[in-house]
Each structure stands twice: as C-alpha cells, then as structure tokens.
Write a structure and sequence with these properties.
The chain is of the alpha/beta class. It contains 13 helices and ten strands. The radius of gyration is 22 Å and the shape is globular.
Length: 345
C-alpha cells in the first residue's frame, strides 16, 4: 500500500497511508526543526493543535516555571490554556495576563528584591534533608500552638506565618485584575476543606483565586469564598492536569517535586508518619502525571522551596531544560500529531 493524500473540502488534507509519504509531500514545509514544529502545531485534524500548560507547586522552585515559559517562547510554542497550582497559579496567572515571559521574569525579580526580608522568614523552616525539614516544621508548629495555648486558647490560629506581607505582594501583582483580563485562558486549582474536593477557579478576581490556590495549610490561613473554605490545590492535585484534559489536545506538565521517595532510614514514629504521607502524595502525583503528554521536571534536588534568593538560577534551569530537550519534545509532539491525523483523537 503506497498511501495517498485526499482532499476534504477546500481547507483540510487528511492522511490515508504511511507517514513518510505525508512527510515527502510536505518536504518543502519541513526544512528544519522550527519549520517542523510549525507544521505539527498548525496541521491538526481540523484545526490548530491546542497546547495546555500545567504548572505545579513548590514555593520558590516555581521560578523554574518562568524559565520554561521563556524556552517555549523561543521554540515559538503557542500556549492555548494554562492551569496552575500554588506558585504555579501565581506564575501561570502572570503569563496569562501578559503573554510575555521576559516581562513576567522582570516583574518577579523586582517583587523578590522588594520583599526579600519578608520572604526570608521561610528560611526558618528549612533543614539539610527532607526528613529533618519535616521534623523542624512539626517542632515549630508544636511550639507555636503550645505558646498560644498557655497564654490564651482563643488566640490559637490556623497558620504559622502572618499573611499580611504576602497579601501585599499578591495585591501588587494582580491588583483588580480578573480572569477576563487574561490574554490566555487560565484556571487554578484549590481544595475545599468542607467537601474535601478539588475545585477549578476560572472566574472572578485573580487575587482571590491565586490566594486560595496558594494557601499552604499550616503556613497561611484558608481563604473563605462564599460557602467554601479553600486551601492550596496541591493538597490533592499537584498539577491541574484533570481540568485541562478536555480543553486541549496536548498537555505540557511542569513538576517541581521530587519523583522519588527518600531512602533515608526512618528512626521514630514522626519520621514514619511523614514517610507514609510522602508515599501517599507520591502515588497521587504518579496518577496525575499519567495524563501529561510531555513532562518537564526540576532535577536539581538541592534547591529548596525557600530559595527565593536563587531566582535567576531557577529561571535559567527552566529555560535550559526545555531547550536542551527540544528533540525529545518534538518526537513526542510528532507522535501525538499523527495519532490525531490517523485516529482522529
């Protein structure tokens, strides 16, 4: 079977036969990598292929997202929909508003410089290893609650860090912007503590939505919106892949969390409990990543969620990761493209 190309109406060409024949037919269009990318992204079954970007949470490591966006822009990849969780919601919302990665980088670096004293408080919650870090957090939380309990039980709060400085940061970033102001469709995930379910926020003010998606339990207070009590979406959905699935043809996922469970020996009940929680989270992450077509991960495990002072390094790593692996990206995109052409999905 030699295969042939048939015309459907005046606009669409549909493949019937072997891939090499199709490529031969379009050899004038595919002269280099950039041309092939353009071809793959604009010659879908009936329309342009829609690319979705799912940005995960991870504190300061989320600056890696900005670098990924810079790399995607250099490859001329047009993002059709963005979904973000926690810091991924912050970066995702900024990019959805301005559609300019270099501008987002400039805004982020200016904010980090302006509020570096406020952000430095998180350094009090880091240690040399994951196990030690979790133990440190538990100790801080215990001392915090004990102190307030001894003085006045009514003063016990639901958070360790005052949200005031961070509310200022978010207000400066988003002011009165709404989802309607976004140049790229955007959503962010959050968890409703009342119903124990993940929600997708897609309307209203970006300030409230991003705050809800970034309210890390234990650090920041939950956000009340109508009858809901909302916290960080990463509790149940590390990457908002589920909400993007029906809206796009191809999902790029950016994961900031380690994909491996620590091999450190557990020595007491606290470490056992934290390890069990880590295993649970890992299984959730594994299931979610199955829905990602192309995964980008932050591989440098030495970078912590509090390393806001290493912003430039994180951004550079993100850009480097996407550009150095563009051949792999094109290969996966090519496979997805032919699946659409031949199978119609």
């Amino acid at each position: 079977h030699t295969g042939k190309i048939t015309k459907q109406g005046n606009k669409y060409l549909r493949w019937q036969g072997r891939r090499d024949e199709w490529l031969k037919y379009h050899k004038k269009r595919i002269k280099n990598r950039e041309a092939e990318l353009k071809f793959l992204l604009t010659r879908g079954r009936f329309s342009e292929m829609k690319i979705g970007l799912a940005l995960g949470g991870g504190g300061a490591r989320g600056l890696f997202h900005i670098g990924v966006l810079k790399g995607l822009e250099k490859l001329k990849i047009k993002i059709s929909y963005i979904g973000g969780t926690s810091i991924g919601a912050v970066v995702g919302a900024l990019y959805a508003l301005y559609q300019d990665a270099e501008y987002v980088e400039k805004v982020a670096l200016n904010i980090l410089e302006k509020y570096k004293k406020e952000l430095a408080i998180f350094k009090n919650y880091t240690a040399s290893s994951e196990v030690e870090e979790r133990k440190l957090f538990l100790e801080k939380a215990y001392n915090f609650v004990k102190e307030f309990y001894l003085w006045n039980i009514k003063k016990i709060k639901f958070f360790l860090v005052s949200p005031s400085p961070f509310l200022k940061i978010f207000k400066e970033l988003f002011d009165k912007k709404t989802f309607r102001d976004c140049k790229i469709p955007f959503l962010c995930s959050t968890v409703d503590l009342k119903k124990g379910e993940t929600l997708s926020l897609e309307e209203g003010t970006l300030l409230k939505a991003v705050l809800a998606s970034s309210s890390v339990p234990g650090f920041f207070p939950p956000l009340k919106i109508k009858d809901k009590i909302l916290v960080d979406g990463g509790v149940l959905l590390p990457l908002p892949v589920t909400f993007l699935k029906k809206r796009v043809d191809f999902i790029i996922g950016v994961n900031l969390e380690s994909e491996k469970i620590s091999s450190e020996e557990v020595k007491n009940i606290v470490e056992i409990l934290f390890r069990v929680e880590r295993i649970r989270y890992q299984k959730i992450l594994e299931d979610i990543l199955k829905g990602v077509d192309y995964l980008i991960s932050l591989k440098d495990t030495s970078l912590k969620w509090t390393d806001f002072d290493k912003a430039k390094k994180l951004i550079d790593l993100g850009e480097k990761e996407i550009l150095e692996n563009q051949e792999k990206f094109i290969k996966i995109l090519r496979r997805r493209f032919w699946r659409r052409i031949i199978l119609g999905r």
